[in-house]
Amino acid sequence: MERDGTDERIGRMSEADATDTAHTKGAVRKEDTAVAGGGSGGVGGGGEGPRAQARAGGAAHRTMTTFSPADEEKRRGVRQMKLIATGLLLFVAVVYALAEWASHAGAGAWAGYVAAAAEAGMVGALADWFAVTALFRHPLGLRIPHTAIIPTKKDQLGVSLGEFVGENFLSEDVVRGRLRSVGIGGRLGAWLAVPEHADRVTAELSAALRGALTVLRDSDVQAVVGEAITRRADAQEIAPGMGKLLERIVTDGGHKKAVDVVLTRAHDWLVTHGDSVMDAVQGGAPGWTPRFVDRKIGDRVYKELLRFVTEMRDMPAHPARGALDRFLTDFASDLQSDTETRARIERLKSEILGRDEVQDLIASVWTAVRAMIVSAAEDERSELRLRVRASLLSLGARMSADTRLQGKVDGWLESAAVYVVTTYRGEITSLITDTVAGWDAEHTTKKIEANIGRDLQFIRINGTVVGSLAGLLIYTVSRMLGA
């Protein structure tokens, strides 16, 4: 009987499904062997690269060529549901055969109703079996068009999935709307306002800072810092700035304290080293003068010098102080307007910057700064970490209470996310399409079937039940119209 032949084929299919796990494990072992040997069996290997490249290519798709314990559990569930669905098909087939036999044996009209329901149930079960099977493989091994959809259309599905993600998840409106609904600014502020969280962020920032400073080579940074300082100093004329600064200092009388200090130190030195001054005067006298005359002149010079310094120290209105003020004022003006003075200052600046001692000093700045920063970052009680922690707590409190600041933070984050999404959308979607394209078709099909196959078997069961009810209804209506 033709239907009996179909039943036998379906029964053989169930037995074949029951051995899927063994076949899959064998395929995985074969593929792993091929990948390890660098043969053409490795996914994406092509037998072209060395053994290491083949292993790297196979490792990229390991998740789609192996089955985890959870996957195996799901596959067992799929096999159980296949047996139930196939068993229900066999049941309605047996019912149909018995109903037909009873009808021919004169059992009554009821046998026709049962036979019609069972026959429609078989049709529905077979149709849904074909539809479900066509998703994953060719039914009965026959290469019928538009079957084995997932393995044959895998790459197209990957492209479609990438386009779907790009259009519906990576669009500017979706990203902005999602981030705006989350309210990151307020949540981040509330999170930072907690002292424990501020401590954690401070520690992470300190670790990152130490790591960055450790990675940087001192010689490279020193060269960059020295070049930057030298280039900036060479590019900018310093004489006008010095002139304005000196003019402001003289106008405000800020130089007077410096003059007081110099005069005080000069007076103290003269008091202490009077003999040295007199010796210097005597040493500069002509050789033909009598020595007592030299001592007389030296003593006189020393006393006049001491008197002059003392009066200048004690008298704010001393004429010498006024002369010094006029000199500084004129010098400040020359620094700003006199071409020759400005040129001399620039030459002096270039000479100073060109000295090796100055360059070494500039280069050593980085070493001192780095050591200071590393030490501060390592010390939990350092001023740097305490200030960073206090700033984070203050920022968190402001962000959690200030809606305007929250809006600014949300706007910055939205703009940054939109920039990343719109700029790298192609790279993100290509990650999906390339990953799907690299999957092995057979194992991808088996994994998808393991995850959704159990629910698909309910389609077969529902098709059997619904087909039986529909057949019974059609047969009943036909008999009523025929009557």
TrEMBL record:
Q: What would be one Gene Ontology cellular-component term for the protein?
A: plasma membrane
List, as start-end ranges, the regions of compositional bias called Basic and acidic residues. 1-33
| Compositionally skewed regions (Low complexity) per UniProt | 50-60
Keyword annotations from UniProtKB, A to Z: Membrane, Transmembrane, Transmembrane helix
Provide ranges: composition bias, Gly residues. 36-49
Q: Which InterPro entries match?
A: DUF445 (IPR007383)
Residues in the signal sequence: none
The membrane spanning regions, by residue number, are 83-99, 111-136
Q: Which PANTHER family match?
A: INNER MEMBRANE PROTEIN, INNER MEMBRANE PROTEIN-RELATED
Q: What is this protein called?
A: Uncharacterized membrane-anchored protein YjiN, DUF445 family
